[in-house]
Amino acid sequence: MRTWRTLACIVLVLVVGVSLAANWLTPAGYAKQYREAVAAPPSHQHWLGTDDIGRDRFARLLYGTRISLLLAPAAALLSTLMAALIGGLAGYLGGIWSRAAMAVTDLFLSLPWLFLLITMRALMPLNVAPLVSVLVTFLLLGLLGWSSAARVLCSSATTLRNSDFVRQAKASGIQGSRLFWIHVLPNLKPVLHAQFWISIPVFILSEANLGILGLGVAEPLPSWGSLLKELEGMVSVGDEPWKFVPLILLIIVVTSFQLALSNPDEVAA
Amino acid sequence: MQTNWKRKIAISTLCLMVLASSALAQGTLRFCLRWEPKTFNPLQVEEDASQAIRYLTGGVLVRLNRQTQALEPGLAESWTVSKDSKQITFKLRGGISFSDGTSFSTEDVAYTVQQLMDPALHSPTGDSFRSGPGNVETKIISATEISITFPAPVAALDRQFDQVAIMSRHSPKKEMAVLGPFMVADYKPGSMVVLKKNPNYWKSDEQGRKLPYLDGVELDIQPNRDVELLRLKRNEIDLINTLDSDYYDKLEATSPQVVHDSGPSLDSEFIWFNQVAKSPLPPFKKNWFRSANFRRAISEAINRDDMAKIVFRGHAKSALGPVSPANKFWFDDNLKPTAYSADAALKSLQADGFRFENGLLKDKDGNEVVFSIITNSGNKYRERMATMIQEDLQKIGIHVNVVTLDFPSLIQRMTQTFDYEAILLGFTNVGLDPNDQMNVWLSSSENHQWNPSEKTPETAWEVDIDKLMRAQASSADPKKRKESFDHVQEIVVEQAPFIYLVNRNALSAISTTVHGANPVVLAPQTYWNAERLSVRQ
Fold it and tell me: Which residues of chain A have a CB within 8 Å of the CB of B229?
């Protein structure tokens, strides 16, 4: 298991490294339209061919990977922090605080988030740069994605609150925020860690789904979502296998994340 | 001996005729409806699926020939329209019966018109006849003659009756008693509609054979276009009425004999800038968008040929103006294509005080030229067009943000908040007559998209368009109407309130087992002559 984990980490590092080198590997950039070579198959000039308006698919894959891989962890961090604050505090405080926080969490879980995202996108100002649209998309994903993690953290914090060492700390006179920050939160770290890693592939896939609906990252900026959009419909499938490369990369990255975050001790047990 | 030969020849000829007629008489045409039909009542039709059923089952007084674009007699053998376009008199054919056997008469026409104009029924078809307040009067002149008088002139009055399927006054089956070539035999919601030959259909072909040739039509309800294409490939359906260019190419690669490109359709794709005075845009942007020079420059900077070649894979033509060349009579032949030239665009902009500096375009006050183009999300063709415009305008230093919005949000910005800068959309035109576009061109209209519901026209050219559109609407002389509408088209191209991009081609697929098919650009493109189609089993 450790070998797989190491391998997954190497793959992730490689993917991130190559995507960060996109400027050097594909100097023409992701937006240039080669209008005389539209929907071209892979060639020496365009390793993965060109898309429907002649943009180099390899360049778009590298830049899209960079965007998805850098911003998904950022969104995951945001959602995990929110989950830690809301779920952790609710579990630690207990009583009415816990019930209120869990009611809010349930409300968030029951929200039709897709429609909410569509509505929020519609309310956004129109003249935003593509980069801002990317940041907003992932910010929204982060802000809306904390609720499941909050439930897990609330439950863990409740267990911690009733644990012997916390009771002992209380008996020693440690109270309030000091107890939370020093004794409870550090012990939530393994759960937070797991929630963070789990969220990354979830956000990558969410952005991909939004991209397929045309609501993710604005043109001409690429993302995995906009690249996967090429696979919609039978027209694209079959004759042009190179269009599957973004999907394959997505599967590899998501699997690598899953392997990288898995705890070898738990598996061994 | 001679008699024997004659007998043999006669018997052989008879056999051949029987075989030929049986070959023609047998066959069921199968194709897909992309939506569930909402109604079988021909007066309540408002969407494509119900329209298809109305077209195949409904009998109309006059029929627009989809190929020649001329009006032809239907249930009425002749008709006259009064000079003021308020009254139409039909002379009906005799001896016609509905599918259930009840006879067709002037009473049925009167009944249909009353139903059509009944405010309680809210007939979408009736909307095109509601030109003014007051009641519609029907007068039965004789057993075969009826006149219908409207309270106000109705534009292209006779052509509007192409959409009015006559209903039976006396049949207990009501809308299921039809006068068209087919009648509804079975309906399985969510699955299929089965039409069978109307045994009482009145038409015969030139050889005196009763029409339709087909035994029936099977309409499968199938919203998924991939599945539709797959079913055509498997010979499970016989035609696809409208194909996207991607699907066309895919099918052409394997079955070139099946696909048909009928040339530019009536549909057009275009962009327009927000010129609404009360819109929440900064004043300097309003000034850009209200400048004809600016709009013309944008028009010149867009490479339409690339768009037609790339986005529609060559199955589109650069648009010349508001009317597609597919509209044979009303298209203005004098219009010249807008030549693509970034240099010419920059010159036009310089005339308005814009400066091109370090790859950026700035107005005379130093504002960088940046605007957004909205289009509806999920429409890959429009998304591609917007992205191509983005790159074209980048060459003259204009930065365009492409925004895809869900359709309701787009409509809200377009019609209520006016919080947008430019929109890329398209018209799916079904009508040929300019009167069908009155609601777009009159400055007072709500659908005058670039600046709706103007109390008085805000520009001199809009005054001219208003006058010309009213002039053509009130004239009964086709030549004078054409002159007026040609002038409107020229003003629109000159002022560019809409920047027309492309007219997409009418693409369809028809199996080689279907005989008599002759796809055209007007809907229904492939089965407009359904009564003369036959399918080899």
Answer: 234
